[in-house]
Amino acid sequence: MRFRNQLQILPLLLLASLWPSAFALQPANEPNSNGTGIAPPPPRADAPSRTRGDQQPPQPDLPFGPELKAAVLKEISNIVQGRAFSAGVDFKTWPDKIAKQQEKIDNATTEQAFTSAVNQAFREFGISHMSLQSPRAAAQRTKTTMVGIGVSLAPQEDGLHVMSIVPDAPAANAGIQIGDVITKIDGEKPEGPESLRGDEGTSVTVTVKNSEGTERDVVITRKEFSIAKTDTLTWIDEETAILKVHTFAAGYSKRRISDLVKEASAKAKYLILDLRNNGGGSVDNLNQLLSHFIPAGTAMGTNVGRPLASKYQQETGGDSTDAVAIAKWAESKVRTRSRVDTRFEGKVAVLINRGSASASEIAAAALRDCVDAKIIGSPTAGAVLVSTFVKLPGRYAMQVPLSEYVTIKGQRLEGNPVKPDVEVASAPRVRGQPLPPSPPINQDVAILKAVEVLHAVAAAPPADNPPADDQAQRDDAPDNRK
Fold first, then answer.
1. Is 281 in a helix, a strand, or coil?
2. Does the 232-384+408-425+434-469 domain belong in CATH 3.90.226.10?
């Protein structure tokens, strides 16, 4: 008997403090909630945190020191070796990885230094959605303002890759751009995104390398900035609208999204869903958005976690590290839910870029697979693991990956970016200048291409093959909304 009780919806799917997998990022677009003022999930981070019932009960706070560090590390070890999952990753090697950082951990005299050392060990796993958050970062996770420089970062071997930038935040005003690599912070090689954390009004010197390999030093003063963005519906003409969704994390409003889709459905034949620089967030928010486009009960993917992988190996003798094979075998699927009043029935295009990560990648893939949406832009982050945050002693928190996500057409998204149907490169801009506002609609190449593609689709003769969301894909499926 196949494993039928797969948990369909896990608490969080974030881009918070993503470590390299494919290219990996944090978040991706929205400020990464690692307390650095680094815009997430994920990264960011970046999303409303819903705690699990098996998390640590409240404990008296210990002062920072050897006793607290030991308590945090003990809990992390239990979680990593007992709960973490990513296909093909051996989490039993955690003791060896953390041992390499033991000297730094012992010498750490601040929360920042301790967190950085632990995260260096996490990075060795080479996956996204795995990080330790300091007490300050954990407290920041659900807030919509931050103090920092305002970027989302992906740790790589050559430094911290800038994945997205908050408009009007210090980094944007200093001329930092997506694609830059921060190679030094105050003259030292950065140990992680948390190295940029600091108090409001303090300055930091970052050495930035652009895509051509040229380095420059930039002095940035940290300040408080808002990370909340209002999702919008913009009309191009009487029958074409653009729905911009900035995040699935803190700031996402289900009511507003429903209102905007209802407005679009009233007269639009074509809808462009703009997920560029959307770094992900809550699975619940993701499902709410998709319910406005995909019929209720449509299978759109499979969560492959530790229990399902083990069951697959026991019952078939197959490879428990092959997420795609496990997903194909599993009966339990992630499905859209009947939870909205309005479903858009027109043609859909989705805009993506390298800053589209996690939940955004799932959204783009599901819309293409299930309603034949066309994807325009550049490849996404390839950073998709379902994860949750677990409370640790001393008000620390750990983001732990719990399952892989495989699309209904068999693509494992972790390490495998969603590729557009029509590739459109991002428009160049002058380096060393403040980040400009988004171009007008009539100058946004991706939007113009999306309009062209949608009209071409509408003019094309009907396809012979049934759409991916046909009745067979919805019938005889277990309801796993537990």
1. strand
2. yes
